[in-house]
Amino acid sequence: MDDGMQLQISLDKLPIKRLDSIEENGIERFPPDVDYDEKRLSLIRRIDFAWAVEKDEEKKKKQKSSKETSTPWQWQGMVENLQLAHQELSVIIDLINTVEANDAVTVASMTRPKLLPNEALSDLAVSAATKLQCYRHVGKYFKQSAKAFEQQVAREARFYGALIRLQQNWKVKRQRQAAIVPGNEGFTFDLFDNSYDQAAIIRSLSMSTVRVNHDAAGNLAINVSPDLCHSLQFGFVGAQSDDTRRKSNQNKSHFSGELNLGKTGEESLSDEECVKKTHSLLREVHEAIFNEQVFDLVNREAFNTVAGVSVTGIRENYLQLSLGQETSVYLTLVSNSQDHSTVEGELTDNAENAILPLESSDGMKREAKQNTSNKGQFSNSICYEIYIQQIFHEYIFGKGGDKPSSSGNRLSGIQAKDGSSLLGHFFKSLAHRIFSTKVLAELENVVCKVPYIQLISNPTWHSRASSWTLYMEVPQSILRGSQTKTSDYYEKNAVKRQFWTKVVVNDDCINVKAEGSPNVAGLFKGKIEETHSINKYNCNLADLPVIILQQVASQIINWLYQEAMMVGIKANRDFLCLSLELEQGETLGLVASVDPEDSEGCISWWLVMEDSFAEEQKLHMSITDGASEYRKFLGHLSLDLLYATLIDLVSLCSGGGSQ
Amino acid sequence: MDSQGQTTSLQRLQNVEKRIVKVLELAGGVMDELASPVGPRKDVVQNHCLEFMQLIKDIQVALRDEIKSACEYRPFEKCDYGSRIANEICHKKVEFIMSQLDAIKQTVDEYHVAV
């Protein structure tokens, strides 16, 4: 309270100063001593106004005293008002000072009650509760963050799980720049093999990198344009039915793919299905890249001079080659999403181009023959397609291992040579297959007409060699059991009952080997003759049926010859003739006639009688009936009938002998 | 936790993400323990903190290894794309042979019907 009193005293000084300045109208200020001013104030309040005026007159000059005298009434009113104002102001200032003093007292007193144990305890309780609340908030925040992050990890696990599974089969790369793009993590599938020849990149470079995206559900998705995926097709110009069948298959598979896409759109796609679908797409793209490379390599090497092959047509995705006058092939890349009608249009164009060479052929018969052989060729177009892919696959990937070890020049030389020979090898194989198909057609034609010949195919395991065997088995002899001595003698030397004729085709060269028969008569009579004869011919396709039929007929003659020798009849044989001698010096001949065009049996038989005496021959020739008596046509005979005929002839010879 | 036998980088990074989730859960657990009305249990808090620090260490080690291996990135030298194309070609061969066998069977059936 004493402090408050002191403050009040200091505050009371201020209005006194103001009063002095107001009274004198600002003309002068009194240099204030506090005690002096206070005394004056008390004196002014106690003494009347006139006395104050008198003192002023004493101090001041006369002029001033005159002014004061002129305004004493106005000043008196103002002085009274000012005094009232000062009183009010002093009261207000005292109130302000009191308030300030109270605040100071309050602040001072607020610190003191905290010293009480109750207040301290409550403060500690409040701060502890606040801390616990903060801990709970932080805990909730952490747990919510953990849950949110776990959900995010689970959502991304669908993407990354699929990517991890696909990474087991495909090369996955990441572009760091692309991280900014939303929905794209910057991952790409690299479908390019580093062991390739770098020059082969150009065509398939754009599609060898597949970008990986998120779809709306967070699943892994790749954007692959179906137009970029091509499949390789190899075929013969003019062929249509086989390709149509293959096209329908491809369109069917593609359509089923679209159905799957529709289903996946409707249903929520499971992770398993997503991975499978993506894997299938990547396989298609990868195979399409390989097809592009094969097509590029074939194009490049087709313009090197391959013997017997000329380029007759070329477009962006189409290459047409001519192997000869009769055969043209094409290699094309067909888009997997291409319409069926468009493909049909292209095939129709190719067919129209192919009609002209066929129309220029000579006769209907020849045309029909070509159609037959073409039919055989075209049905194997898929086979050739697979073969050309395999050849270039071995070339592309087989060089990868050699690349690091060999020098650049040597490598390029090897590649150039191998590349040229690869395509040459393929077309030589193709030409061989076409030619061997024709040979097979001829052989089948012969075998169908001759009932006692069988055709056997011999695998050669070589792409440019083919082999077949014509097999004939003759009936068993019925004379063997009748003569004990003869039977015992000939059992030691078993009579051959199987005959074969081998046909071997190397590239476009035909070799025919026909097995003969042991010469039993020579052994029987003690004469030394060749026991096993091989006939070998080089022939072309036109002569093949005649030669084969001649070989078969010769084998039949050999068989009949040894059967006659068993009976003991004197006989001679030529290539296609078996001659039996009669006692009178006449010769009875069984002659084979060969005609491939004969649809009834191809091999027909004649019975010919020759007379050694010139006179009788001249005599018989004069008579018209004599001709028929000397030559008689027996017709097409089976082996059994031939054997029966032989037995009859043998009986005739025996009868002649007895006579 | 998953085993340490993963081979791919993506799998290891996914494990790092799982560890981060675990770390956040541990932090939440510690906060809950501190906010317990009966007062925090020292052993529980200590175990949580130990596990927390261990996981942080594992995360740090894994990320450091991934960064190091990323710097040592190599092209795929043992890629089996060539073998895969060979498999596709063999698949085509098998399909072709099966179609040929089906044609033979059809011919045989037609022959039997004719006889």
Describe this structure in words.
The complex is a heterodimer of chains A (659) and B (115). Chain A has 19 helices and 18 strands. Chain A is α+β, with helices and mostly antiparallel strands and 659 residues long. In chain A, strands 9-10-11-12-13 form a 5-stranded antiparallel sheet, covered by helices on one side. The radius of gyration of chain A is 63 Å and the shape is rod-shaped. With 115 residues, chain B is mainly α. The longest helix of chain B has 34 residues. The radius of gyration of chain B is 31 Å and the shape is elongated. The termini of chain B are far apart. At the A-B interface, helix 6, helix 9 and helix 12 of A face helix 1 and helix 3 of B. Chain B: Belongs to the Mediator complex subunit 11 family. Chain B: One of its GO terms (biological process) is regulation of transcription by RNA polymerase II. Chain B: It is found in: Nucleus. Chain B: This is Mediator of RNA polymerase II transcription subunit 11.
